[in-house]
Specification:
Chain B: This is Competence protein ComFC. The complex is a heterodimer of chains A (455) and B (196). With 455 residues, chain A is an alpha/beta fold. Chain A has helices at 10-16, 30-38, 121-135, 150-163, 175-188, 242-251, 267-272, 301-306, 312-323, 335-348, 362-370, 406-413, 436-454; strands at residues 20-22, 42-46, 48-49, 55-56, 67-71, 78-82, 96-100, 140-144, 168-172, 194-197, 210-214, 227-231, 258-262, 278-281, 294-297, 328-331, 353-355, 376-379, 393-397, 427-431. Chain A folds into three domains: 10-100, no CATH class; 121-281, P-loop containing nucleotide triphosphate hydrolases (Rossmann fold), CATH 3.40.50; 294-453, P-loop containing nucleotide triphosphate hydrolases (Rossmann fold, 3-Layer(aba) Sandwich), CATH 3.40.50.300. Chain A has a seven-stranded parallel β-sheet with strand order 10-11-9-12-13-8-14, covered by helices on one side. Chain B has helices spanning 21-25, 35-38, 55-66, 77-84, 98-104, 108-115, 137-141, 171-182; strands spanning 49-52, 90-93, 124-126, 147-149, 159-167, 187-195. Classes of the chains: A alpha/beta (455), B alpha/beta (196). The interface between A and B is medium-sized, with 15 and 17 residues. The structure holds zinc ion (3 copies). One zinc ion (ZN) binds at residues 8, 10-11, 13, 33-34, 36-37 of chain B.
């Protein structure tokens, strides 16, 4: 056979390397894909594997409930598709998945780390320990309090891996976190091609040696990464469960180490790591203790809101923030209650806004608070992590509600006092009865402070 | 198609799977979506449709038709069954163009009926692969015929009921009615899942 007249487009290689993709969803011309297949540059997999049981070859789902069988007009026979990963384009029995096996992209070894910050002693130690683990291809757990400067800790490890021509992924369950990390990494690694992948992300060109992705996007990779970093490993909706575990395992190379970064490690995670592969930072980078939550009873707050009144204590708290010109966040257990409350808060100050998970203006509203264009924001748990606002004061309404787990409460408290110029602040749990979760959150924060300041 | 869902097809929340004797004896379908999701669909004002078009419905259609999640055809089976069970007219789902149907891998109007065990036949075929939504209002109204009779199709002097997923301008239905009436139908009515 002769393959004259066709040269592999480098862009095709750069895109498909490490990815497992629906053949008919490739962003490249079908003719180029077919040529690449005849060159055996792709391994072709059937979408759904039938033996010994149904398995989606993209997301590795095997839950029988998440497969549907139907009379397919395309393959003219009963066809099975996976509902688990359907948002990324349907994988069915008669669709093909392609996996790059051709020439690999050119990896750069010249990467610049442009960062002039200073590590605290604890940060330095954790950064060194992480680097040593990754160099030895050993997985590592970084457990650090909110505001300890976890992202910076990763810089030396990422830089080292990039210089060794390795491919690095930083995965996190939340799109917000990807959006927050992306500009920071672009700034710190100005010579590195970095892609940010999340649902609805724009198309990005070239071969990215550093990929920031939501864990969901990992389904689209297969043995792609030499170093895998999982940030906020405990975040909703994934406690480090099977789905995430599978996605992470599948996306990385078999022997690639995983670095877990978290403020609230689950017992399962803690037990999974040896002492030598664990770094613990109980103290914030600015060396001030974590603000400890105060409990404040707000009896029958729900009734009060539905009768059209903000409970007195909460109203007073809010007015104080406005007078003292301190930005504030108020967390609510449900969207319904928050929306009810929002109307009432707007009678205190018209500019107070509310934000929830499906709000299309979510980013803009947070930005408005950061830029001091609005005095405060009402929110559901979606803002519990990842966001940093200078001098922010925080209240939780209905801290006894089941949605506020101890970890969620710790994360929420962690929003306060992150800035070195404002290392303290008010964190208030308004409640209708104290729960063990509230006690646990408070006890853990006090424990971290004790650990941090006994060193 | 009759398996009992343990999780909501739209939001994946666990469903209460207790099947009541009443449901069992009256041959009701087990639910496929949770009460919360179900409450987001708003009943139609008119008698020729089940629901109004809203954001939830837009998402539903997107997932069924664009993401090809044919399992969602089951979501309205109880309501469709209730509407059609005493129907005397012959039910005709609006067909897709064969090429379009092959691309989507199924016909959504047929799947909606199949999921509710509603018998239907096909007498029409689509003549164009263009979609109504890609045209402006004027083009829609003055378009050449969208349907013709299938080869060998027998239209009798009987009552027919057309079924489509959504009615926006009514052009699609108008074209189908015209073909059937010209071919000798006694009367042609229509019913849609959504009033656009
Ligand atoms: Zn899948
Ligand atoms: Zn098929
Ligand atoms: Zn639901």
């Amino acid at each position: 056979m002769k393959y004259t007249g066709w040269i592999l487009p480098p862009a095709l290689r750069d895109f498909h390397e490490g990815r497992i993709w629906l053949k008919n969803h490739s962003p490249f011309l079908p003719i180029d894909i077919d040529k690449a297949i005849t060159h055996q540059y792709f391994h072709i997999l059937e979408g759904i594997q039938k033996n010994p049981f149904n398995k989606c070859n993209r997301c590795h789902n095997i839950d029988p409930e998440l497969f549907t069988i139907f009379e397919c007009a395309s393959c003219q026979q009963p066809c099975i598709y996976c509902r688990h990963c359907i948002q990324m384009g349907r994988v069915s029995s008669c669709t093909q998945l392609i996996l790059w096996t051709g020439p690999t992209a050119i990896k750069k070894r010249k990467h610049v780390l442009k960062w002039t910050g200073q590590f605290t002693e604890l940060q330095q130690q954790a950064a060194d320990e992480t680097l040593a683990s990754v160099k030895a291809k050993r997985s590592h757990l970084i457990s650090a309090v909110c505001g300890a400067g976890k992202t910076e800790l990763l810089f030396p490890t990422v830089h080292d891996a990039l210089k060794r021509a390795l491919r690095v992924c930083i995965a996190t369950p939340r799109t917000d976190v990807v959006l927050e990390l992306y500009p920071r990494f672009q700034q710190v690694f100005p010579k590195t091609v970095i892609h940010a992948l999340y649902g609805g992300a724009p198309k990005q060109d070239g071969y990215a040696q550093l990929v920031l992705a939501t864990t969901h996007q990992l389904y689209r990779f297969d043995q792609a990464f030499d170093v895998m970093i999982v940030d906020e490993a405990d975040a909703f909706p994934y406690t480090f469960d099977e789905t995430l575990q599978k996605a992470v395992e599948k996306a990385k190379k078999a022997d690639a180490p995983i670095v877990f970064v978290t403020a609230t490690p689950s017992l399962k995670l803690q037990q999974a790591f040896q002492h030598e592969s664990t770094s613990f930072i109980p103290k914030r980078y600015h060396n001030h203790p974590l603000p400890v939550p105060q409990f404040d009873a707000l009896w029958n707050y729900e009734k009060s809101f539905f009768r059209g009144k903000i409970p007195k204590k909460l109203k007073h708290w809010t007015e104080q923030r406005i007078v003292q010109k301190e930005p504030f966040l108020i967390f609510f257990p449900t969207v319904a209650l928050m929306e009810k409350a929002a109307l009432l808060f707007q009678s205190i100050n018209k500019q107070i806004l509310a934000v929830h998970a499906e709000d299309p203006e979510r980013k803009e509203k947070v930005l408005k608070l950061r830029n001091k264009e609005i005095p405060g924001l009402l929110t559901t748990t979606i803002l519990e992590r990842g966001i940093t606002i200078r001098n922010v004061q925080v209240a939780v309404v209905g801290a006894e509600s089941p949605i506020f787990t101890a970890n969620a409460l710790i994360q929420i408290a962690g929003r306060v006092g992150r800035n070195k110029d404002f290392p303290d602040g008010d964190i208030r749990f308004f409640h209708h009865g104290i729960t063990t979760k509230m006690d646990e959150a408070r006890a853990k924060i006090i424990f971290y402070n004790k650990e941090g300041f006994s060193l | 198609m009759n398996k009992i869902e343990s999780r909501c097809l739209l939001c994946s929340q666990p469903l209460k799977t207790t099947i009541s004797w009443k449901a069992f004896l009256t041959k009701q379908f087990s639910p496929t979506i949770c009460e919360k999701c179900s409450a987001r669909f708003v009943p139609a004002q008119s008698t020729t449709a089940l629901y109004q078009y809203n954001e939830t419905m837009r998402e539903y259609l997107h997932q069924l038709k664009f993401l090809q999640d044919v399992a969602l055809a089951k979501v309205f089976r109880q309501e469709l069954y209730t509407r059609f069970k005493k129907e005397k007219a012959i039910i005709l789902p609006i067909p897709m163009h064969p090429i379009k149907q092959q691309e989507r891998t199924f016909s959504h109007t047929e799947e909606l009926l199949k999921a509710a065990y509603i018998p239907y036949i096909q007498l029409l075929e689509k003549t164009t692969t263009e979609t109504q939504s890609s045209k402006n209002r004027d083009q829609r109204i003055h378009a050449s015929p969208l349907f013709r009779l299938k080869a060998g199709a027998q239209v009798e002097y009987k009552d027919y009921l057309l079924f489509d997923d959504i009615k926006t301008t009514g052009t699609t239905l108008k074209h189908a009615i015209e073909v059937l009436m010209t071919a000798g139908a006694k009367n042609v009515q229509y019913f849609t899942l959504i009033d656009g």
